[in-house]
Write a structure and sequence with these properties.
Blueprint: E1 4-9, H1 19-27, E2 31-42, H2 58-73, E3 79-85, H3 93-107, E4 109-114, H4 119-122, H5 124-140, E5 157-161, H6 167-170, H7 172-175, E6 178-181, E7 184-187, E8 198-201, H8 206-213, H9 240-245, E9 247-255
Parallel strand pairs: 1-2, 1-4, 2-3, 4-5
Antiparallel strand pairs: 5-9, 6-7, 8-9
């Protein structure tokens, strides 16, 4: 059995930041997982179209949407940690880190992906998930870790997702977008271009990425003609869209193997895969 790849995110639809990579490696036989801290329900949750369901039904609806997205990507069914949207930053760090460590020990991913420490645009839930996933990654291989029954397992690499800051000037929809989180208008900041360590070609999976994102009907306005979600990515005309978003970019945060320059493979230094 080939090693696993695990993405750990705050909410359903956040997997879109690296869904092309999840699909690409799954197609190569790698066990690929998407883990969500929440089911997309809670104090911050909003519904794109009230006709799709009530707030009380949102957790159930978005769990099904996430399952739909995973199926379209060809990856394993989603895993939920069970926290509330908008309250992840209130979960004690050690408690959440132990939950991540336990999950890593159970599923044994060789590579783990999560949000960057900046949370993409300063979203408190994203920042918290980044922090407790990083801590859980470090704890998973520690035999002295208490309250976790699974045998130790140490993944080889931890990556943070990242959109290069240079995209800000090239994509007005990205530069001008604001997220209304708890009364604050948070803007996307990206990461400094020179911190990007890894660029994975997902151009063959671009269409599948959008199809999977369209499963999240309660979160996006859909284009009536294409039936695909309207995002800052789809606002970019071809061929610039393929040039910019045909690759997914990452920052290597932890690694047990030496990095030799810029990577084009999340499993660089770890191949051949068993």
């Amino acid at each position: 059995m080939k090693p696993g790849l695990m993405g750990i995110f705050a909410h359903p639809d956040d997997e879109g930041s690296c869904s092309g990579s999840l699909a690409r490696y799954a197609a190569d036989g790698v066990r690929s997982y998407a883990v969500c801290a929440t089911r997309g329900d809670g104090v911050d949750a909003k519904i794109s179209d009230p006709s799709l369901g009530t707030h009380e039904m949102l957790g159930e609806i978005r769990s099904a949407e996430m399952a739909c997205a995973c199926a379209r990507l060809g990856i394993e069914p989603p895993v939920f940690l069970g926290y509330q949207d908008g309250e992840v930053d209130q979960v004690p760090l050690d408690e959440a880190a132990r939950a991540v460590a336990r999950l890593i020990r159970q599923l044994k991913p060789l590579v783990v992906i999560t949000h960057g420490p900046e949370g993409g645009y300063g979203h408190p839930d994203h920042i918290s998930v980044s922090a407790f996933t990083t801590r859980g990654f470090d704890l998973a291989g520690d035999p002295a870790l208490p309250q976790v029954d699974e045998p130790p397992f140490a993944p080889a690499k931890l990556y943070y997702t990242g959109i290069p800051r240079s995209f800000m000037e090239q994509v007005p929809g990205f530069r001008d977008r604001r997220a209304d989180i708890r009364g604050q208008q948070l803007k996307f900041v990206g990461v400094p271009d020179d911190t990007i360590t890894t660029s994975v070609d997902v151009s063959q999976w671009s269409k599948i990425k959008l199809e999977a994102l369209s499963c999240h009907r309660t979160q996006f306005e859909m284009d009536p003609e294409t039936k695909l979600p309207k995002t800052f990515v789809t606002s970019v005309p071809e061929p610039l869209r393929s040039q910019m978003f045909g690759h997914e970019r990452f920052v290597l945060a932890r690694s047990t193997v030496a990095r030799d320059g810029q990577e084009d493979d999340l499993f660089a230094g770890l191949r051949p895969l068993a």
